[in-house]
């Protein structure tokens, strides 16, 4: 599509087309490298662009990976290796399996999860991210399940979009069941 008319001036239509192409969301590198249709020889130009819903589902999937992976800092002291803390070598969160509810400092745990999300999920705007315990004190004594809300904004064009996820942490297994709750 030509963005200039015969005189060489940029046209409004051409500039709008260029801006629209720039504003489309692109999938993460892993998703771009994954061939979901191996029998197709060519991919359409639109196949490299995604919708906001697809982006939100990809972020949810990737957050599940982060939150259900035990980081290396759980077993090794990283005080001498400050840069390793924020590197992919330390991917994940501290182990919660086998801990009692009374042993957990909620503020530290919220901050630990928030830090892991900031380090390993760049599509979430760090200054918008909030992680909060939402478990009822009475339910904690019986179920050994801790509930968290994760809310913030996803980087999108032309403007960031809000999200709200909720996770239940089973303290016996350490598994986090992250679910989408919609927009914040």
TrEMBL record:
* UniProt xrefs under InterPro entries: IraD/Gp25-like (IPR007048), T6SS_TssE1-like (IPR053176), TssE1-like (IPR017737)
Pfam families (UniProt xref): GPW_gp25
Which segments constitute the IraD/Gp25-like domain?
54-158
Q: Which residues form a coiled coil?
A: none
Cross-referenced SUPFAM superfamilies, in alphabetical order?
gpW/gp25-like
Q: Tell me the superkingdom of the source.
A: Bacteria
Question: Could you tell me which NCBIfam families the record lists for this protein?
Answer: VI_zyme
What protein name applies here?
Type VI secretion system protein ImpF
């Amino acid at each position: 599509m030509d963005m200039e008319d015969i005189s060489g001036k940029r046209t409004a239509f051409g500039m709008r087309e260029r801006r629209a192409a720039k504003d489309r969301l692109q999938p993460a590198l892993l998703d771009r490298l994954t061939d979901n249709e191996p029998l197709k020889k060519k991919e359409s130009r639109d196949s490299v662009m995604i919708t906001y819903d697809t982006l939100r589902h990809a972020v949810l999937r990737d957050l599940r990976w982060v939150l259900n992976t035990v980081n290396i800092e759980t077993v090794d002291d990283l005080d001498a290796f400050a840069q390793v803390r924020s590197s992919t070598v330390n991917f994940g969160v501290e182990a919660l399996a086998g801990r009692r509810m009374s042993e957990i400092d909620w503020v530290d745990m919220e901050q630990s999860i928030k830090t892991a999300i900031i380090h390993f999920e760049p599509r979430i705007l760090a200054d918008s991210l909030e992680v909060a315990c939402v478990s009822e004190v009475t339910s904690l004594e019986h179920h050994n399940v801790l509930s968290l809300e994760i809310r913030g904004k996803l980087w999108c064009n032309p403007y960031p979009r809000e999200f709200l996820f909720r996770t239940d942490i089973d303290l016996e297994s350490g598994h986090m069941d992250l679910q989408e709750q919609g927009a914040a």
